[in-house]
Amino acid sequence: MFSHLRTLRHGLAGMCAGLVAPSVSASEAASLIDEFDAIERLAAGAKLALVARIDESVPGAEGENGRARWLARHTGQSVPMANRDLETAARLGRVPATAGALRSGELTATQAHEVTSAAVLDPTAEAELLTTARDGSLSELRRKAKKVRAAATDHDEKAKDAHEHRDMSSGTDEETGEGHVRAKGPASAVAQMLSLLEPWVQAEFVKARKDGRRERRGALLFDALLAALRFAGQARRSGPGGLTLPDLAGPVPSGPPVQILARVDVPAIVRGYTLAGETCEIEGFGPVPVAALREFLPQGAIDLILTNGVDVFNVTHFGRRTTARQQTVLDWIGGECSRLGCPATRHLQVDHRIDWAHTHVTELRALDWLCPADHRRKTHDGWALVHGRGKRQMVPPDDPAHPANAPPDRRATAA
User: Fold this and answer.
1) Which pLDDT band holds residue 310 (cuts at 50, 70, 90)?
2) Cβ–Cβ < 8 Å for 117, 149
3) What is the pLDDT of residues 130-182, one digit of tens each?
């Protein structure tokens, strides 16, 4: 086995040494990239399978974290990345379908890590995760794996741990002179911090625009935090109108100054806590305990999407019209292009599955998000998403799975 593997390696090394890019056509380059990618995947699968066999009997792998340090030295990766590979290798025995896909070269090491990290918590999700890994993008797989992990986690316990381990540290880089601050704590607390800081960010944005400066949001956040802390230190009041932001006319808005978007299963909010598989999340921050979500509710600046499993049960928002409620749900469940394989999450456009000109009705269940390119492909070239909901394939007009090619009775049911 070893001699055969070395022969393959030497043969591949000779071919690579003789590969001169300018002499390869574009089509040949594309084909060669596919072949090298297949070889790389097979090698990655073999490495992960063998990594599990490394123990302290291997010279250099002794002691605490010795296996990761040994692997990092021999593969040129960081110790955290080596630890990730070790964790993935240890999980493969519990997810046989993923292990088989990895051995056959269907997955990269990164894809295997995402699938195994979620599938060991919820084995019923393994098949769907593998489908996303094969047909979707890496960002789509990561988002789906994150949701699976979140649904299988005790959020209340995690929130308690996050509170217990809350921390803030600071330091200075002597070479650059840059100071840094790092803070961590419960996700709900971080969400509240940022919502309270938002009017100060907007004040800094207005100031920068007046000065003709174009600043990154991160820079504005830094300036806003400094301004808010200085203001709090001064404890300056402007009379019965309340606190006044420096360089910004008018009082501080009452209540949370920005909209918070959250999703929670109806049984969980009635019960007051989540069970395994139930959802209670704040957009951008992930799962939070129901109790933490309730802290925001009385202040009236939250869009609350009530769900019953995967279906939207109701949308609650204070002072919004029905169409805006539909937009709220789309913002949550449609945060990425609906075409499987497209990772786009920005500049998305709402698409009616059935042309509005035929129905004159806007129904939530008949809407999808599409990126501009896929929207144009659907509108002008006749492509369409296959029947279903959520992320799914988009096919050309002549594909048998195209909704227009379905039997009349199925088209009527879909409509």
Assistant:
1) low
2) yes
3) 999 999 899 889 988 888 887 776 667 777 888 899 999 888 777 787 888 88
Q: Which residue has the tokens 């090394």?
A: 13
**CB-based contact 48:109 (threshold 8 Å):** yes
Domain positions in the chain are 33-152, 260-332, 334-414
Full 3-state SS string of 296-357: HHHHCCEEEEEEECCEEEEEECCCCCHHHHHHHHHHHHCCCCCECCCCCCCCCEEEECCCHH
- Angstrom distance (rounded) from CA 36 to CA 292: 49
* Segment 171-188, tens digit of pLDDT: 877 778 788 888 999 877
This prediction has a pTM of 0.56
Could you tell me how many helices (H) and strands (E) the chain has, helices first?
A: 17, 11
Residue type, 329: V
Is 114 exposed, middle or buried (CB count within 10 Å of its CB: 0-12, 13-18, 19+)?
buried
Give domain 33-152's CATH architecture.
Orthogonal Bundle (1.10)
Sign of CA dihedral 155, 157, 158, 159: positive
Backbone phi and psi for residue 185, each to the nearest 5 degrees, phi listed first: 175, -170
Place of tokens 């309730």: 294
- Going by C-beta distance under 8 Å and a sequence separation of 6 or more, which residues neighbour residue 214? 208
